[in-house]
Every structure is written in structure tokens, then in C-alpha cells.
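Recall the central idea of this unit: under ordinary conditions, the amino acid sequence of a chain determines the structure it adopts. In this exercise we apply that idea directly, starting from the sequence alone.
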Amino acid sequence: MERIKRGDTVEVVAGRDAAAARREGRKVQGTVHRVIRGYKIDRNFRKSGRDPSKDRVVVQGVNLIIKHQRRTGDVRTQFGRIEMEAPVHISNVMLVCPSCKEATRIGFRESADGAKVRYCKHCDEVID
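Accordingly, the structure predicted from this sequence is:
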């Protein structure tokens, strides 16, 4: 079970976007579009195991970049200057608890039916 999943609301706590928001006195929050898991690569360029230090997330409205896309032969492809979200390292975001509406750390415990669930360490409420 992972700490941050697709669809979670997260707050950016470190990085370029967080520093700019801190200067303006606001917080940067967004929804997770995609979670990218990191893997160790052996010398034959095969995945040889998980590497949590390479985990990244794509958050809505955070870390916006401009990609210059060349026109291709296919008529349906978008071309020109495309603004898109780039991945952010997973350690730079914190989950926002749905019940207390604060960025918080996550813990794991077993529910009554024996399933592993996430809970908020701030308000002790179950998230899943």
C-alpha cells in the first residue's frame, strides 16, 4: 500500500512552486494525476527491483513547463508550445487529510475487517 495515490489532494511543501507561494503567503494544493514508481535498473537495462528514492508524482497545476512540440505527419497531434505538468519528487508533497483539511503525515493500521488502511497522524481519522 502506498502513501500517496492517484486522486489524492496533496500540498507542495518543498521546491520552486512552494517557495514562490510562501513568498506570496499562500499554499499550493492540487490533485494527483499520476504516480510514477521508480525502479532500479541493472546493467542490461532491465528493472531489477523497486527504488523508492525515484518515486515521483504529477500534480494538477504544479511544476508547469512549456514543451516545444514539432509538427509531425499525423494531423491529430498537437504542436507548438504546449504547457504541461512535469513530475515532482514524492518527498516534496504531503497528503491533505479530507477530514481536518491539513497537510499531514500518513500512518498505516489494520481496519476492523483486517484490511490495511491509511490514517491521518494529526486527527487519527482513517483516510481510505
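The mean pLDDT is 91.
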